[in-house]
Amino acid sequence: MRAAQYRRNGHMFKHISDDIAAVIERDPAARSRIEVILLYSGFHAVMFHRFAHACYKRGWFFLAKLISQFSRFITGIEIHPGAKIGRRLFIDHGMGVVIGETAEIGDNVTLYHDVTLGGVAPSIDSDKQRDVKRHPTLCDNVIVGSGAQVLGPITVGRCARVGANSVVVKDVPERVTVVGSPARAAKSGANNGTEARFAAYGIGAEELQDPVFKVMDGLLDKVQSLSMRVEELEKELENERRGPVMLTSEDIEIDIKLKSDDPKA
Q1: What is the DSSP letter of 187?
Q2: How many helices (DSSP H) and strands (DSSP E) are in the chain?
Q3: What is the pLDDT of residue 235?
Q4: pLDDT for 23-51, tens place per residue?
Q5: Is the pLDDT of residue 72 over 90?
Q6: Right CATH for 2-209 from 3.40.50.300, 3.40.1160.10, 2.160.10.10, 3.30.365.10
Q7: Verdict on whether the full-model pTM lies above 0.90
Q8: Is 145 or 236 the better-scoring residue by pLDDT?
Q9: What residue spans define the domains of the chain?
Q10: Average of pLDDT values for 120-124?
Q11: What CA–CA distance (Å, rounded) separates 204 from 249?
């Protein structure tokens, strides 16, 4: 019994050490482990959740919810005690993050502030929704940019990225970046078996534009060029309607007078 307890404690401390290392790895502003332990609200929220989830699994639902609400008050991050979170989760800044009861998060996942892992079921007939998968699953190495909403019992594949302020309501394949509302694939990473490079805010150094915006930009350019051509054709048609310019006798007299006054003429 005592040996099993030591193993559990060692496992828990290994989790904590990994979570601290994840923060230092992915945040250049983190200068030391003690700074992470004392000052990082994302790390605090994950620690509180691990205790709350342990209570939740033992059926101590009230205590689990109490811990999660205290964590929410302290950190501004709301994680339901029923959510399943893997190793090395990094919640950067964290304010406004909401993770629902049936959400599942794999290893090495990064979430930025204002991210929601929520459900889409209406708030009526709650009894039928109990113990039903309502929230998303994020596989290993996923990055979710700030303000993104990942909604419903969908799966975001391994090494996928969700751009800032995107709204994801469908499954995201592995190594694909999605952007926009609703989110659409913007660019796929090279599937060469290597881990995806960490990309700040789920976007990275390259510019990833919503495909719909690209189409709209192209259409606007085309409309502008067509509009300019229509104006040119209208001017040509107007000139043709006017025909050749007819000079009056008055115009001829003025022209003769100007020529006679010109010493060079």
Answers
A1: E
A2: 6, 15
A3: 80
A4: 998 888 888 999 999 999 999 999 999 99
A5: yes
A6: 2.160.10.10
A7: no
A8: 145
A9: 2-209, 216-261
A10: 69
A11: 74
pLDDT of 161 above 50: yes
Max mean pLDDT range (127-131, 152-156, 190-194, 214-218): 152-156
Lowest-pLDDT choice from 160-169, 172-181, 214-223 = 214-223
Task: Tell me how far apart the alpha carbons of residues 62 and 81 are, in angstroms, rounded to a whole number.
Answer: 10
Contact yes or no for 116/135 (Cβ under 8 A): no
R_g over Cα of the chain: 32
Rounded to a whole number of angstroms, the distance between the first and last alpha carbons of the chain is: 121
- 91 membership: H or E segment, kind and range: strand 90-91
Reduce the secondary structure of 103-168 to three states and give it as a string.
Answer: CEECCCCEECCCCEEECCCCCCCHHHHCCCCCCCEECCCCEECCCCEEECCCEECCCCEECCCCEE
Residue 188 token pair: 């796929």
Q: Are residues 136 and 154 in contact, defined by beta-carbon separation less than 8 angstroms?
A: yes
Length of the chain: 265
Closest CA to 117 of 133, 93, 140, 141: 133
Task: Name 113's Cβ contacts closer than 8 Å, sequence gap at least 6.
Answer: 92, 93, 94, 95, 96, 97, 146, 147
Whether the CB-CB separation of 109 and 138 falls below 8 Å is answered with yes
